[in-house]
Amino acid sequence: MSALHANVYAELLAGRTIDAVVIGASAGGIDALLRILPALPKDFGFSVTVVLHLPDDRDSRLADVFQQRLAMPVRQADDKMSVAPGTVYFAPPGYHLSVERDFSFSLSQEDPVHFSRPAIDILMESAADAWGKRLAGILLTGASADGAAGMARIAACGGLTVVQDPKDAEIATMPLAAIRLHAPDAILPVPAIGALMTAMMENQ
């Protein structure tokens, strides 16, 4: 990490305590996540919960695929499961994933949001209500406006908001929608997002 980048991350994280990270992505998201998550150390201290837009009609192997590449434990989120630090969770297909005030997950089959279930907005908005200013939200590549409202809610609750640089995204629609709705704290390419996540841990 260069001294310049380290200074930028220090400014972003100054006075912040992060307890949890939520990430949203759609088209191109698996590739972006494979460039971010495997670099996280085994002792990464925060929960990381991910919503990727998935087809409803098939089982997800995301937890298995990423577990083979990550030092951290990886699980598919389930109803009533407690959110544990140091764990990566993926939303299951066909269900909206929410975080309750007691930091447990809940699943629902309410109507799709932006034609998606799971929806990024639902995860991010509920996580913002649960963790408030101790939450970091990251929005990556995608082809819809899902996640824009969720990122705005995180910002309104005092959390940290990071959007993938649209020029770096496979599909720029999702990052652009978030930037237009509410200016994020940082707009970064994927390698810098990974470095920022590592800096979050070092900042504690």
TrEMBL record:
Question: Which InterPro entries did the record assign?
Answer: CheB_C, Sig_transdc_resp-reg_Me-estase
Q: What class of enzyme is it?
A: hydrolase
- Is-annotated flag, keyword Transmembrane? no
Alphabetical UniProt keywords: Chemotaxis, Hydrolase
Pfam families noted in UniProt: CheB_methylest (PF01339)
Name the residues annotated as catalytic in the UniProt entry.
S26, H53, D146
- This protein's superkingdom? Bacteria
Q: Which CDD domains match?
A: CheB (cd16433)
Reactions listed under catalytic activity? [protein]-L-glutamate 5-O-methyl ester + H2O = L-glutamyl-[protein] + methanol + H(+)
UniProt EC number: 3.1.1.61
Q: Which residues form the CheB-type methylesterase domain?
A: 14-204
Protein name, as recorded: protein-glutamate methylesterase
Name the source organism: Massilia rubra
